Automatic annotation (TrEMBL):
Location relative to the cell: Cytoplasm
Keywords: Cytoplasm, Magnesium, Metal-binding, Methyltransferase, Pantothenate biosynthesis, Transferase
Subunit structure: Homodecamer; pentamer of dimers.
Function: Catalyzes the reversible reaction in which hydroxymethyl group from 5,10-methylenetetrahydrofolate is transferred onto alpha-ketoisovalerate to form ketopantoate.
Matches recorded under Gene3D superfamilies: Phosphoenolpyruvate-binding domains
GO (cellular component) term, any one: cytoplasm
Name under which the protein is recorded: 3-methyl-2-oxobutanoate hydroxymethyltransferase
Organism per entry: Chitinophaga caeni
Residues in the signal sequence: none
Residues engaged in binding Mg(2+): D44, D83, E113
Main location: cytoplasm
Taxonomy of the source species: Bacteria, Pseudomonadati, Bacteroidota, Chitinophagia, Chitinophagales
Known EC number: 2.1.2.11
Cited InterPro entries: Pantoate_hydroxy_MeTrfase, Pyrv/PenolPyrv_kinase-like_dom, Pyrv_kinase-like_dom_sf
Amino acid sequence: MKKTISYLHAKKHNRQKISVLTSYDYPTTKILEEVGVDMIILGDSVGTNMLGYQDETEVTLEDMIHHTKAVCRAIENIFLVTDLPYNTYQTPGMAVENARKITAAGADAVKFEGGRIDILQALKSEGILVMCHLGLNPQHDQDRMRSGKISKGKQFSEAIELIQAAKNLESAGADLLILEKIPGKLAKIITGNVNIPTIGIGAGKDCDGQVLIIHDLLGLNDKKYKHAPRYFDMKSMVKDVIGRYQDEVAEGIFPALEHTNIIKESELSLVQAWCMEHEMDI
């Protein structure tokens, strides 16, 4: 069954947690489908996790469309949200134009950072489902992130600003809300005072759902984050497997006979005879 925005809202109403992960490619998405994850956020984190970019501001619309198409080829049931990347929604008209390209590639909804009501209203007027993003905004908070001060909402004024922004976005038609790197008790207040699902990342257990970058979850990244426990050390496992392969190639163990295509002796004899006639080594 394809998971819809109504399905996600029903999970909030019924107090059932929403499971969310990032995915940027076909094989990973196939696995998430088999497990039954509710939602994928194809974030601009694709840049630093898949494309070797220095930060999220380097990600282009073409990058997001390319990866959206790849993910969609594997999706049957999961609800897909794709980011509008940096500098693609400065005006309402630009936001609508670029969001249409992303939804045409297969996304169920788009996500943008910040609390701009004019952008949200423009997208909603075109029937586009929208996830808004409050708290730490990686596209716009690079200086803050480099300084290590990544949490938002720890001071009274900032906390009230986030609560009001969440309420305003809901009133303007937001369908979903991601809360990033804010205090858990603040996220609980926001979640309890909006009727749309909140998805937390580093925002405590009281959000309606949780999202992690799958590379952090699997231990593929060197950097560790407080909000992202490593469920598995896949990097070490992959290095071990590749090392074994490299050793077997170097030692002539791989490929073994069972990995090799066979030619009939009768055909081989003909080939060898032909080679000898043409003074070739056999």
